[in-house]
Amino acid sequence: MPSIAPLNALELDAVLAYSHDHIVITDERGRILKASESCAGVYGLPLRDFINASTYDLQRDGILSPSITVRVLEQRQPCHLMQATRTGRSVMASAYPVWDGDRLVRVVSLSKDMTDIRTLQREYELLQRQLAARETAPPTALDADADIPTCNPRMREIVSLLERVAPTDASVVLLGETGVGKTRIAGLLHRRSPRADGSFVEANCGAIPETLFESEMFGYVAGAFSGAARNGKPGLAERAHGGTLFLDEVAELSPAMQTKLLRILQDRRVTRLGSTESRVADFRLVAATNRDLDAMVADGHFRLDLYHRINVVPITIPALRDRAEDIPLFIQRMLAALNQRYGKRKSLAPDAWSALLTQRWDGNLRELENGIERLYVLSDETTIHAAPSLGPVPGATHDAGRAGETSPLPSLREAVEAAERDCLAAALKRCTSTYQIARELGASQPTIFRKLRKYGLTANAS
Questions:
Q1: Integer Cα distance of 303 and 315 in angstroms
Q2: What is the mean pLDDT of residues 373-386?
Q3: What would the mean pLDDT of 113-140 be, rounded to a whole number?
Q4: Matching CATH topology for 9-113 and 153-317?
Q5: Rg for the chain (alpha carbons), in Å?
Q6: Nearest to 355 by CA among 442, 405, 419
Q7: Which of these, 262, 258, 287, 261, lies nearest to 172 by C-alpha position?
Q8: Confidence (pLDDT) at 125
């Protein structure tokens, strides 16, 4: 039997180790003799299990789908095909038979991972569609990146809903915990509506005493009561004419106040205290509360007819802890706003990033904003650190352990890498593309690709 001239083992190992292609060498029965280490990551099988495995078995188990080696053994000629691996990678493979005379003795396959290239292609197509859509979009269309920075699927659904609701006059009630950004979203609805040139009138219903509700909501004429302004005063509803009336904490209205508000919403006319002349109050109503209106209606604490008036489009804003992937986006935006306000160029050190990203933030955006500003104004340096003397940032839920216990601190490099990986993983989970991740995190797209590879993360374009 003729023998095959052996390739020096060191040379072969070097080829397998340093080649950019994923190389697999099998015998005439499809048994894997050698493979480059990179195959493990692409095909999702440890190299020790990959070596000596049968390509027929790997094809049957879906690890090689299909196996190009099996194709070569069946057709007895070079083959080229695209493979889909169990790890979700897209691989372009080529395989060649090795002959010893007229006997096929080896199959050498070389494959290239095309996932990143295809991802870039899809992202480019997505970007082109987005640019085309922006060119033709009406001026009231919401821009999720500019107005509501988010990678969270639920928040993206809310942005889509806001896009449909903003151009209408439908009443909107914003539901959610204190500090989730209901006032900002109400303002955004106003700015993106046909009423944007009108006034945005905000009222905190929990801060209006019942005895003053009529004068605040309806207004009054001169001399209507003792202490009235000399020229009278228009009420909130009148001031919102042509614009938006935002009633925050609407669930705090007493039954009597609810009745008076209902009358305005039904008639869209107001009569100032001390006057007999009614005035048109044409406004778009946006209400907000952190309470369960359904339960309040069921308990008789909130009028059902008023509930139906304000609850045309209910929108529930998730708590910040339920969209943790958005926290880095808000941190960047808040830091940029502080730099602009104070005329500085401060940045966050890795330990500050780590501290901010590991908080629960039960106070949501309001608490996050306060925490960042606290670190900002108390830092005398350009780089902001989470100084131990400040104690934990408000909202921290770190387990301090038993009294007197201390845990070893990670190295600075470990802390940086942990924070970096967590930030990338959170963004990758929700963002639609590495282009968007790069833009939101203030990095170049090649840097994002390199970091994702470093931490074993995979980008999936949609």
A1: 19
A2: 86
A3: 55
A4: no
A5: 32
A6: 419
A7: 287
A8: 59
Instruction: Please give the C-alpha separations between residue 346 and each of 124, 378, 382, in angstroms, as whole numbers.
Output: 33, 12, 5
User: Residue 439: how many CB atoms within 10 A of its CB?
Assistant: 15
Is residue 78 within 8 A of residue 97, CB to CB? The reply is yes
Helix (H, G, I), strand (E, B) or coil at 201: strand
Tokens of 62: 């879906």
- Quote the longest CA-to-CA distance of the chain: 118
Can you read off the two tokens belonging to residue 93?
Answer: 């493979």
287-336: pLDDT as tens digits = 999 999 999 999 899 999 999 999 999 999 999 888 888 888 888 889 88
pLDDT of residue 189 exceeding 60: yes
22, 110 contact by CB (below 8 A)? yes
Assign a CATH topology to domain 9-113. Answer: Beta-Lactamase (3.30.450)
Query: Across residues 402-408, what is the average pLDDT?
Result: 43
Global pTM reads 0.55
The token pair at 288 is 């907000």
Q: Which helix (H) or strand (E) holds 234?
A: strand 233-234
Q: How far apart are CA 145 and CA 148, in angstroms?
A: 6
Pairing of β 244-248 and β 200-204 = parallel
Q: At a CB cut-off of 8 Å and minimum separation 6, what does 337 contact?
A: none
- DSSP string of 375-433? HHHT--SSEE---GGG-SPTT------STT---PPPPHHHHHHHHHHHHHHHHHHH-S-
List of E strands, 61-102: 79-84, 90-100
Domain spans of the chain, in order of start? 9-113, 153-317
pLDDT of residue 316: 94
> In 104-181, which ranges are continuous DSSP H helix?
115-136, 144-147, 153-165
Per-residue model confidence (pLDDT) at position 432? 74
DSSP-based three-state secondary structure for 253: coil
- The pLDDT value recorded for residue 405 is 42
Angle at 445 between CA 456 and CA 132, to 5 degrees: 125
9: number of Cβ within 10 Å:
9
175 phi and psi angles, rounded to 5 deg? -115, 145
- Provide the pLDDT confidence category of residue 142 given band limits of 50, 70 and 90: very low
Out of 1.10.10.10, 3.40.50.11210, 3.40.710.10, 3.40.50.300, the CATH code matching 153-317 is 3.40.50.300
Query: How many residues can be counted in the chain?
Result: 462
**Looking at residue 389, what is its pLDDT?**
39
Give kind and range of the element (H or E) at residue 244: strand 244-248
